[in-house]
Amino acid sequence: MGDSFIRPHLRQLAAYQPILPFEVLSAQLGRKPEDIVKLDANENPYGPPPEVFEALGNMKFPYVYPDPQSRRLRDALALDSGLESEYILVGCGADELIDLIMRCVLDPGEKIIDCPPTFSMYVFDAAVNGAGVIKVPRNPDFSLNVDRIAEVVELEKPKCIFLTSPNNPDGSIISEDDLLKILKMPILVVLDEAYIEFSGVESRMKWVKKYENLIVLRTFSKRAGLAGLRVGYGAFPLSIIEYLWRAKQPYNVSVAGEVAALAALSNGKYLEDVRDALVRERERLFGLLKEVPFLNPYPSYSNFILCEVTSGMDAKKLKEDLAKMGVMVRHYNSQELKGYVRVSAGKPEHTDVLMECLKQFY
Fold it and tell me: Taking the CB of residue 153, how many other CB atoms lie within 10 A of it?
C-alpha cells in the first residue's frame, strides 16, 4: 500500500552499491579496523593535513547554520584554482553536484550519454531523476569513441554527457583533442576531475569562461583526504551557475566540511607531498602487479590501477580471498568489468601486504 505513493520509476530503481565502511568490514572479517588494508575505494590513506584536525577541534559555532554560499571556501578555491569565485559552487561532495546538475538540466525522459566503464553515479542519478541513458562504450584501450558520441548526439539529441578524466576505474585521461571535439557538439559536457591531481594534467576549470557548455567537477575526497566530510566543488559558466544557486539546498555544506576544506587548502605543501607519495606508490605498485602472472595492470594517471584477471582465475573469488586475508580490493559485477579488479594506491606498507597475499596464489 505505502509504495503506491512512490513515483513509478523509483519503484524499479536498483540501490547504489557503496563500499562497506571500516566498522562494518571489521565486524564481517573479525579483524580490527587498523588490521585491514583498504585498497577498494580510492581513499587517501594519509588523511588530511594536521591543520584540519586542529580546526575541527577548535570549531566555535557548530550550532549555527553554515554560510549558504560558502563564501570563505569559494574565495580560497579561487586562489587555489585561478578561477574567480563567481564561477564556483560548493557541494556536499561532487556527488551532490552531479544530482543537482541533472535536476536543473533534465526533464523526465530526456537523455544523457554515459561512456562505460566509468563512474556508476551518473547512471544511478539519471535513474533517480527519470532520465534515459544512452551508453557509448569505450574502446578496448578505454579511450572515448568520439565518432560514436557524435553520431548519438546527432541522432538521439541527448541533453548532456558525463566524462571522467582520469577515468574511474581504469585511470585513463581524455586527450585535449577529444575533449575539444566533444565541446563543439550541441551537448552539455560535465567533466569530472575527481582524480586530476594525480594525473600531471592541468585542470580545465578555467575553460568554463570560454565554453558555455562545459561544467568541471572537483573534490576534496582524494586530494585532501576528506572523503568522510563530503566536500566537492564545481566550475560553471555564469549562464548556468545562476540556476544551480536557485535550486541547491541552502545549507548543503556543513560547518565542519567548510572548516576542514579551508584548513586543508592552508597547507598546500602537505597536499603536494601526499600527492607525490601516492603517485610514486602507484608507479611502484604497477611494476609489482606486472610481475603477477594472472594480472594484467593498465597504466593509470590516477591513484588506482585496474587489473585484468587472466589465466583462468576468477576475479570475484580473488577479491573475496584477499578480503579473508584482510586486504580489500574492488570488484565489479558489471558485464564489461566482471573479469577485473581495481587496486587503490596506498602507503608502501599496504602495497607490501597486498603483494605478500597475492604470492599465495602462484
Answer: 18
